Structures are given as C-alpha cells and as structure tokens.
C-alpha cells in the first residue's frame, strides 16, 4: 500500500499520477479510511482473519470480482471507466485484494486536501474500508488486472450514487460522513 496526492494531470487513469506528496495512515484515518494488511499465505489463516473482520463489522455477504481485459473483452474499457466515476455508497465498502493491483482514489474534505484526490495503491493482501458517504473511484493500474473480494453489509445500500447526480450531495450518508470527519478535527 502506498498513498499520495493525485497529480490531477489529465491522462490515462491507470498511470500512477503521483504528485510526490505522500499521505500517511493518520491522514487516511482522519478521512475514515481504514487500511489493513492480511498477507495471503499457503495456509488459510487469512480466511479466518477476513471472516472475523467481516463478522465484527456486521457483514453478511461477499463476492469475488476479477477485472481483466481477457475476461471482459470489448466491455473492458467501458467497465473500467464506470468504476472511475466518482460516487458514494450509503454503507461502507470493503475490498480485499486477492491478486493483481489497482488504485482507489478518495476525496479529501479538509485543508490542505480539500477536494484533492488521494490515491491509494493496493496489491495482493491489502484490505481497505471506505466509510459510507465518502466520494471515491477505482481503477486498475497499468498491469490491467485485479481480483478482489467485495464484502457487503446489505443490499441495496450498496448502490453507487454518482457525484454527477443532482441529489447525491444531499444524501443522508454524505451529511453524516461530513459531520464525522469535520467534527473529528
Ligand atoms: C468498486 O468499488 O469500484 C469496485 O468494486 C471495483 C472493483 S473492486 C477492486
Ligand atoms: Ni464504490
């Protein structure tokens, strides 16, 4: 895992876009983002860890997604563009990377990161929890492949709400999120 301020230079979303300004775990935690490493070894210890983490946080459902050009064929470019649309969810979102790599970008909300993208680079064994109401987006990196476990609390709170929709800023989850992160500072 590595986190840094996105450089905001237009171009391929899959490139690193590293501005050279690193972001600490503390800054991520101020945004309500939790990072955890659960190494994937030959034994099944990681599965026990995932199971207990999921249970602790009240997760009932999960699935596995593989994003590859081979697997998605002609739909690939459209699919990765859709993941890159800035959105929020009304529940928190957990991703655990089983293979490959990619970037989750989260929006800063307080200075000096207000409205800046913070890019979080994830690879095998990395787990991230994005809180309800945080604006974020995802992309594969230039390796063009990732396999991730997606953990869900409940449908339909899982639905992505695009920032471009007129009511998204007004959603309860957004208000509560802002109150939590701004109140904590
Ligand atoms: C998301 O939240 O955008 C996704 O599920 C993308 C694939 S998970 C690495
Ligand atoms: Ni999402």
Automatic annotation (TrEMBL):
Binds either 1 Fe or Ni cation per monomer. Iron-binding promotes an acireductone dioxygenase reaction producing 2-keto-4-methylthiobutyrate, while nickel-binding promotes an acireductone dioxygenase reaction producing 3-(methylsulfanyl)propanoate. It comes from the Eukaryota. One of its GO terms (cellular component) is cytoplasm. Its EC number is 1.13.11.54, 1.13.11.53. Fe(2+) binds at residues 87, 89, 93, 136. Ni(2+) binds at residues 87, 89, 93, 136. Belongs to the acireductone dioxygenase (ARD) family. Catalyzes 2 different reactions between oxygen and the acireductone 1,2-dihydroxy-3-keto-5-methylthiopentene (DHK-MTPene) depending upon the metal bound in the active site. Fe-containing acireductone dioxygenase (Fe-ARD) produces formate and 2-keto-4-methylthiobutyrate (KMTB), the alpha-ketoacid precursor of methionine in the methionine recycle pathway. Ni-containing acireductone dioxygenase (Ni-ARD) produces methylthiopropionate, carbon monoxide and formate, and does not lie on the methionine recycle pathway. HAMAP family: Salvage_MtnD_euk. PANTHER family: ACIREDUCTONE DIOXYGENASE. This is Acireductone dioxygenase. It comes from Kwoniella dejecticola CBS 10117. The gene is ADI1.
């Amino acid at each position: 895992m590595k986190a840094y301020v996105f450089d905001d230079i237009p171009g391929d979303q899959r490139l690193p876009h590293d501005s050279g300004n690193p972001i600490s775990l503390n800054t991520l935690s101020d945004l309500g983002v939790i990072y955890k490493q659960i190494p994937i070894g030959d034994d099944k210890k990681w599965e026990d860890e995932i199971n207990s983490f999921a249970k602790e946080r009240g997760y009932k459902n999960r699935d596995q997604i593989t994003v590859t050009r081979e697997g998605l064929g002609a739909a690939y470019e459209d699919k990765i563009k859709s993941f890159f649309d800035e959105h929020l969810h009304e529940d928190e979102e957990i991703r655990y990377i089983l293979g490959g790599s990619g970037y989750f970008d989260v929006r800063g909300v307080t200075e000096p990161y207000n409205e800046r993208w913070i890019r979080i680079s994830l690879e095998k064994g990395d787990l991230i929890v994005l809180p309800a109401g945080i604006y974020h987006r995802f992309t594969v990196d230039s390796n063009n492949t990732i396999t991730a476990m997606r953990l869900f609390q409940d449908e339909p709170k899982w639905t992505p709400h695009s920032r471009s929709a007129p009511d998204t800023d007004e959603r309860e989850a957004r208000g509560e999120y802002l109150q939590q992160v701004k109140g904590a500072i």
